[in-house]
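Hi D.,

Good news: the full-assembly prediction came through. Inputs first.
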Amino acid sequence: MHRWARRIVWPGALVTAALLAGACDRPENPAGVKEVDPPNLWEGYIPATDRITGGGKLGDGHDFATFGFTTRPGQGQIEWVQHCLDGVNPNSPTCRWGQFSFHGSTVDEYYEHPDDPDHCRVWTGSGELKMRDPSMQYLDGTYQYTVDKACDYGEPGVGHDYMSMSIGDYYRGDVLGGGNIQLHKANP
Amino acid sequence: MKTHWQIALGVIGVLVLSPGRLVGQTRALAAEGFAASVQTALASRQFAAASLPDTGGCANADADQASVLGTLSASGLTSMTSGMADIGDNSAQTTAEAADVSIMNGVVRAKQVLAVASSWVTEQGASSSATGSQLAGLVVGGVSLGDVTPAPNTRMNLPGVGYVVLNEQTRSGDGATVSGMAVNMIHVVLLNFLGIKTGEVIVGSASSHVSR
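Then the structure:
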């Protein structure tokens, strides 16, 4: 499957949990009983009621991403720009298809991250992706995105805060190389 | 003796052309950025400029291309700001970037320019940082400088043009309740044969400011 095939990306742990639940715990389906709805992949996640903002840079050199976002329950936006100055670079998985920008305009789910609910949030939504390389612009369009983990570990954010992003099969996550992430628990 | 209007024009000129102007110094937080700007007698243009709303949140601007004949060309211009005032903690941050930059017909060139400014204030104090700012594929006066983050406020003369300040940083605040940072990654100051400033070109400008 093409890495940029359009599909919803769910956190890997949740996908695994859902598959295990389906394989091990699925009750027999008596004849005549309708199939139930698909499992809730966010089951067990606690909805967050606060807000998180941030912006900065991941990576270094020619291969880096810049971003800015504000997120609260049910609304927010995120801007994400992935750089690859030398175009297609098969040696770099994040540069492989060149530079793109992404504008996420919705927040569909927003939760405390179970790994570290005091500092980290996870959310999903959708937005518009635009490739910079004209030869790749057939990929432009609407995609689901998931901020797999955004963490505020105090100040300064550089070298401490963490950010990771999935768009389709694109993934990038790292400690901040610039900027800051701020979790605003008192200001939903 | 200068007339009043001459003095007034001079003051306006200084305000317009001053580099690294800090924003919103009376607000709890402010941030703005632009990917590039040109201020000359013939052109006054700003590209991909974004400013943080007073209430905080997120703002961005982008442009595929920027071109001012003989003065500036660039592509992939983007600026982003985000931030919010909170009880006890305020933060604001800005990134501004451009690619394939050529200034004054190639006297200064760069494959990528990125300015990052972030400011924060907590009960423990206030501070700002420009960490993450960088230049890639930098060429000044025909000399290749490669991928670098020059020392703050590095100045190089450009014979026949003026001079350039790389990684120009301006800090503000008291470190306790107020802090601000303005970064211009490439700031070319144009001088005439008398050494008088006639204009400027800035690429990668990010600023942030917080107070409590």
